[in-house]
Amino acid sequence: MSKPRVLFLCTGNSARSQMAEGWLRHLAGDRYEAASAGTEPVGLNPLAVEAMKEAGIDIAFHRSKKLDAYLGQQFDHVITVCDRAKQTCPLFHGALHTHHWSFEDPAAAKGTHAERLEAFRTIRDQIRLQIVEFLEA
Fold first, then answer.
1. Selected catalytic residue, list 78, 89, 95, 127
2. Residue 10 is a catalytic residue
3. Which key words tag this protein in UniProt (predicted)?
């Protein structure tokens, strides 16, 4: 029996969706297949990589992917993690369940490196909690 497939969607596929993919793989990779994509991919944000590394998860090998790469594929769960992606995302006719988790964009944070990294840590931790709730449901 194959693992349930989960696709995390965001606009840039640079931080939130990448962190969600990393968390699901870390917490339940033996039970779920995780992927992520963006409506307008811009590349993996180094601060997302740094924040996840602090949590013991390496997402440095991830790459920013365009949503089109997954159109027509079957997913058990399609989860938008930003409001803009929810508004612009096409319907996934093969998705059994769709969810929306609204997280602020840590890439929009201003300030020093430490201040911006703190924004990524905050979102990283919020995403972890949401993934844990998802797994317990």
1. 89
2. yes
3. Arsenical resistance
In the annotation, is 82 catalytic?
yes
Residues 60-116: tens digit of each pLDDT: 999 999 988 988 889 999 999 987 655 665 565 667 898 999 999 999 999 999 999
Contact 97, 76 (CB under 8 A): yes
Residue range(s) defining the domain that contains residue 84: 5-136
CATH code (residue 86): 3.40.50.2300
Task: Find the catalytic residue in 6, 7, 9, 82.
Answer: 82
Domain total in the chain: 1
Structure tokens at 27: 């917490």
Q: Which of 6, 7, 9, 10 is catalytic?
A: 10
**φ/ψ of residue 6, rounded to 5:** -125, 130
